[in-house]
Design goal:
The complex is a heterodimer of chains A (about 80) and B (about 180). With about 80 residues, chain A is an all-alpha fold. Chain A is about 65% helix and about 0% strand. Chain B contains 6 helices and 8 strands; from the N terminus they run E-E-H-H-H-E-E-E-H-E-H-E-E-H. The chains are: A mainly alpha (about 80), B alpha+beta (about 180).
């Protein structure tokens, strides 16, 4: 994790996925986690764009399939 | 009248779409939750002919504005003077196209058909879609026991319903998240 603002994002992810356990949060992926529906995915886009202040291409967004990948994008930006 | 959003548009289903719909509904991950997966292309066509004649149903093909390619289906069924069921939603575009197809359909139902409520009935086991509805601003109207019969098993449906006010909130939420809000 790069900085404090990324920690804030993790907090937001806990809220979005309605999950309190950080270890569980880091393990979930889109395929096997029922609460990761298309609206949740759109919320992730919103969260990423808000925090990176960059437009995330839809193709890139569609490929995101785990929380680890979300964190990677945050770290890259 | 063109039923459209920024990313997708809807076209009334015709018999020429039978092959596309047949292939779409036969896909393994999709047919899993359908209570009437088609047995053959002919059966699909016959079902569509009857369905098109039924004035209580409006079925649409979802097309991407990016390339005019078909990306799925969506419908209003059991249309009465005040309400309709929205469903038959199979959308395989990108995340924004998929959600916009719902917004565009509901907008059409409320604005042009002047309906008061638009509800959905979802297979309880289709948890991703159930969660989708939970994440919208629709009201959870509860469970309807043994509503679906899938491979000889009775399965409950969960009913969610939008009125105009709740739909406006959902539309606004979508517009904010996609940067379409003015």
């Amino acid at each position: 994790m790069k900085n404090i603002s990324n920690l804030k994002v993790i907090k937001e992810l806990h809220k979005i996925f309605k999950l309190k356990d950080k270890n569980k949060l880091l393990k979930i992926n889109r395929e096997n986690f029922d609460k990761w529906d298309s609206l949740t995915h759109l919320q992730i886009l919103f969260l990423l764009e808000k925090n990176t202040k960059k437009k995330i291409p839809i193709k890139k967004l569609d490929k995101i399939s785990s929380v680890k990948e979300i964190i990677k994008i945050l770290d890259e930006n | 009248m063109k039923i459209e959003g920024k990313f997708i548009y809807l076209k009334k289903i015709g018999i020429s779409d039978a092959n596309y719909i047949y292939k779409l509904r036969k896909k393994k991950n999709i047919s899993l939750y359908l209570h009437n997966p088609p047995k053959s292309l002919d059966a699909q066509k016959k079902w569509m002919i009857d369905n098109i004649k039924n004035k209580k149903n409006l079925d649409f093909i979802i097309l991407s504005k990016k390339n005019n390619k078909k990306i799925g289906t969506i419908a209003l069924n059991n249309i009465t003077k005040k309400d309709a069921e929205w469903g038959r939603w199979i959308s395989q575009g990108n995340i924004i196209e998929n959600i916009e197809s719902v917004i565009v359909l509901l907008d059409f139902g409320f604005k042009h058909l002047n309906l008061i409520n638009l509800y959905s009935l979802t297979n309880k086991k289709n948890k991703k879609v159930v969660n989708f509805h939970k994440n919208t601003t629709a009201l959870n109207k509860g469970t309807i026991k043994s509503f679906f019969l899938i491979r000889n098993k009775k399965i409950d449906a969960i009913k969610f319903s939008f009125n105009k006010k709740r739909f406006k909130l959902f539309k606004k939420k979508f517009q904010i998240m996609t940067g379409l809000a003015q």
